[in-house]
Specification:
Helix content is 76%, strand content 0%. It is mainly alpha-helical. Keywords: Cell membrane, Membrane, Transmembrane, Transmembrane helix, Transport.
């Protein structure tokens, strides 16, 4: 069995373990919040530190930052057009789920298993641009259509964006890399030990959060959302495969990155601004399954 098929099977096994732990009540879904905080604030920043410590900066990596930002903005414009005639809260629910990509929690464990830290370097740069979409634009959309349930002032947005530990870590490592400064070796070694927990914890968390209950009246709305998100993503991936002249990990990052699922941060936004949390959670989980299958098929084809 090839290494990437083995990696996908291992990933599925760990996700199923997380789901079984929840179903057997050994772990509660509420426990996932604590695991998520550890992943986002501890293990993922350590992965970023280790990944970027050995990065030699070149112009192609900067392009990935701009592409991550531009792709999110394009998705937002398409979602605005598709859902323009819906009620404000329905519009806000689905518009906040289309633009962003779940790179830190979903892509990182798969990429680490397939390409190691070299692959994480490329996806990390894509996630720098994506982070401004996830923690900035998506938050703004959720607040704007919440019908007065939240605030939308610029200060609140910037405060929230720059309170994101992964984003701040990205920016610090990015700046240190450009000015050719290195972190102390003891710090990098410590981060390396902690970063090894990121992949299993992230995959367990995906399993704990799996939930697919939905109301009949939401089926059409969910179908429209999924067609919009994956219509854009699959089209962009195909265009990249045939027309992007750069081969290797840069191309693989774009092809796989464009079909990643909705970021899990939309669930806290749904809670914060009083959206339908079950609907948002179900939509997010569906994208996880769809993206998993699409990436498995894609990597089988391109590798």
């Amino acid at each position: 069995m090839s290494s990437f098929h083995l990696q996908f099977l291992l990933s599925i096994t760990i996700i199923l373990l997380g789901y079984l732990l929840k179903r057997t009540h050994l772990v509660k879904e509420a426990d996932g919040e604590a695991i998520a905080r550890i992943v986002f604030n501890v293990t993922l920043p350590c992965v970023i530190i280790v990944t970027f410590s050995g990065v030699e900066f070149d112009l192609r990596l900067l392009w990935l930052v701009l592409i991550g930002l531009g792709f999110g903005l394009f998705n937002w414009l398409v979602a605005f057009f598709v859902f323009r005639h819906k009620a404000p809260r329905t519009k806000g629910t689905f518009m906040m789920m289309v633009p962003g990509l779940n790179i830190g929690l979903f892509a990182y464990p798969l990429v680490e298993g397939l390409w190691g830290f070299e692959g994480l370097k490329y996806f990390g740069m894509l996630d720098v641009g994506n982070a401004f979409i996830v923690f900035g634009l998506t938050f703004l959309i959720a607040a704007y259509y919440a019908g007065g349930k939240g605030t939308v002032d610029i200060r609140t947005i910037f405060t929230r964006v720059f309170r994101s530990v992964p984003l701040v870590t990205y920016l610090i490592m990015f700046i240190l890399n450009i000015i050719n400064l290195s972190l102390p070796e003891i710090l990098v070694d410590t981060a390396s030990v902690i970063s090894s927990a990121n992949m299993p914890l992230s995959l367990l968390l995906l399993g704990i959060y799996l939930n697919f209950s939905m109301k009949r009246e939401h089926v059409l709305q969910l179908s429209t959302f999924l067609l919009t998100k994956y219509g854009i993503g699959i089209t962009a991936s195909i265009l990249c495969y045939f027309f992007v002249p750069i081969d290797g990990l840069f191309l693989y990052t774009l092809i796989i990155g464009f079909i990643l699922p909705t970021p899990t941060s939309v669930v806290p936004y749904a809670v914060m601004f009083k959206y339908d949390k079950k609907l948002v959670g179900t939509a997010s989980n569906l994208t996880i399954l769809i993206s998993f299958v699409l990436i498995w098929i894609t990597t089988t084809f391109i590798l």
